[in-house]
# Entry
Amino acid sequence: MNATNAGKEALIRNISDTALWVAVYRARENERPDALFRDPYARKLAGDRGEQIAKLMQSRVSHEWPYIARTVRVDQIVREQIQQGVDLVVNLAAGLDTRPYTMEVPPSLQWVEVDLPAMIAYKEEELRNEKPHCKLRRVALDLADVPARRKLFQELGGESKRALVISEGLIVYLTRDEVLALASDLAAQPAFHHWVLDLASPGLLKMLQKELPALKEAGSPLKFGPEEGPEFFLNAGWKPVEVYSMLKTASKLRRLPSLMLRFFALLPESNGRQGSRPWSGVCRLTRIN
# Structure
């Protein structure tokens, strides 16, 4: 994954390279004296290409703070749900996430990471000498393969009584129909009680499409920012029960990089329809019985 000829090809070759970018942000946070979380593996996993991608993406606008806020909120939800009896965590498009190695979780917890074969192979090679804190399984699977993912979901649903699904950084790359289909497939499993995801408003989606043209050039354009907000998922069997604004979260964590953003963070909270307002949040959904 580390490029020796980055100058001869696009830095972002495909959607998997965005995982290198996000790992850089986790590495930078880990190296702060006031770090909000620890990820000692992030720097190694990101490699030189990851740092180059992060510099490219930050050439115009700082994108680091929402990823830090997102990580903190997802960590919070994972901990709370494990305390409340979750026995299986299913991380879709897991990328270079290292929570099974860095979070204090019960050894009996089942944790399943699903991603493309090349990402799984790279991660297993880089972390081959490390030991996770729980029962970790990796599945090499293209989630666009609908029959294969349904088979996997059915298998995992049969192995759990209370599962938590994570799809951090995934659905923004899908169309409305693709998100709806994925949500319906997950809801088909009674054991999948909770789903944690990050969501963008139409306004933020439009802004990011303009600010991050490299994603489109790599064949991984940003697509999903529903007008309905978190309530989009009601039609697919999921009810939003927790919604955390990334701006508000980053403000509380003291990670906002500018006075203007700090000012906007003082405005009243709004977790419903956002329209043209640039908004992003982490949502916990529960399956509608």
